[in-house]
Specification:
Elements (H helix, E strand, L loop, with lengths): L6 H4 L3 H6 L18 H16 L4 H14 L4 H13 L3 H18 L2 H14 L5 E6 L7 E4 L2 E3 L7 E2 L3 E8 L6 E7 L4 E6 L6 E5 L1 H35 L3 E4 L3 E4 L1 H37 L7 E10 L2 E9 L1
Parallel strand pairs: 1-7
Antiparallel strand pairs: 1-4, 2-3, 2-5, 5-6, 8-11, 9-10, 11-12
Helix pairs in contact: 3-4, 4-5, 5-6, 6-7, 8-9
């Protein structure tokens, strides 16, 4: 099978050469596709930018190596750089996964030097991997367990390899409220986390008019919160100009000192959050007002269940019921 490789395999980065002696000349057996692939070209560009940043900005260089690998996953040279980046940054479990991939690809592509380099790093790193075990107090159907942005199932709950540092665990199940916990784990540490029984979801029983009233009140509170955040953001932004940290130059725009710049950015963040909260409040108040005004005259109970919705993309709340 023909594998298209880009600059990352034709010329290994100086970062790799510095970490693993003697690899700079390998990759010459790879041949570029005569018809350039835009993704390969983009990968090569990112790889070159990463090399240029290695001596001045390791974090940004590593970010570009990873972006290059996304564009050209077949580039074993880029994968080796990504593994070395994670090793230097202390992301032990990630580095081990990547060096293991380098070893596998190196064997498949007949690159013994890459295999040997990966195995050397794996021998040094594997004893330092932290492992996390998650134990559930209550076994519920359709339970979801998120570790940061990774969905864990089955055997992955026992001795799961993780990077050192702070981890976030979110556990959810239908009709139950989600449980969220932060865990800090060190190099080579084995830690158990026990998840308590999940609390039941909130159930509201009321007439449709009553539900409309509650929703309208919640929406009104959100609107007020949004306005408050917006006013505070405006005050914080204007204060930077009043205190001389920022100034407006006609026809040129606004210029700020470092402290003023950070505060104006903070003000913009508050303003954006206030806008989102306010819009959500308007929508909620509108729905609530509609339910309230349009409610029939009967006094029969209606049921509204608030349930969690958890996925690798985020955590949310879903309301379901009959009106």
């Amino acid at each position: 099978m023909r594998i298209v490789r880009g600059l990352a395999d034709l010329v290994l980065a100086a970062f790799v050469v510095a970490e693993i002696g003697g690899l700079g000349g390998f990759g010459a057996r790879a041949h570029a596709d005569p018809t350039p692939d835009p993704k390969i070209q983009r990968a090569d560009q990112l790889f070159a930018e990463a090399k240029a940043l290695l001596s001045s900005n390791l974090l940004e260089a590593c970010k570009k190596f990873k972006e290059s690998l996304q564009e050209n996953p077949a580039a074993i040279g880029t994968l080796l750089n990504v593994a070395l980046c994670d090793e230097k940054l202390g992301h032990v479990a990630s580095a081990v996964r990547e060096f293991s991939d380098v070893r596998t690809q190196g064997k498949e592509q007949g690159l013994p030097e890459h295999v040997r380099a990966a195995e050397e790093h794996l021998r040094a790193l594997e004893p330092t991997i932290p492992h996390l075990t998650i134990r559930l107090t209550e076994q519920l159907p359709e339970t979801k367990i998120l570790l940061d942005d990774t969905l864990l199932v089955g055997d992955a709950l026992i001795n799961h390899p993780v990077d050192p540092g702070e981890l976030v665990i979110v556990v959810s199940a239908p009709t139950r409220l989600p449980y969220r916990a932060k865990v800090t784990i060190g190099v080579a540490e084995h830690k158990d986390v026990v998840i308590p029984a999940l609390a039941k979801s909130v159930t509201i029983r009321a007439s449709r008019g009553r539900i409309g009233q509650i929703t309208t009140i919640i929406g009104g509170a959100a609107i007020g919160t949004g306005l408050g955040l917006g006013l505070y953001a405006r005050h914080l932004y204007n204060k930077q100009f009043d205190d001389g940290r920022c100034q407006h130059i006609p026809n040129m725009g606004d210029f700020c000192q470092a402290s003023g710049q950070s505060q104006t950015e903070r003000a913009r963040t508050f303003g954006n959050i206030g806008t989102v909260v306010g819009v959500v409040g308007v929508l909620a108040a509108g729905v609530g007002a509609y339910l309230w005004v349009r409610a029939p005259g009967d006094t029969s109970d209606k049921k509204l269940i608030v349930m969690p919705e958890v996925s690798p993309d985020g955590l949310g709340i879903v309301a379901a019921g009959r009106f």
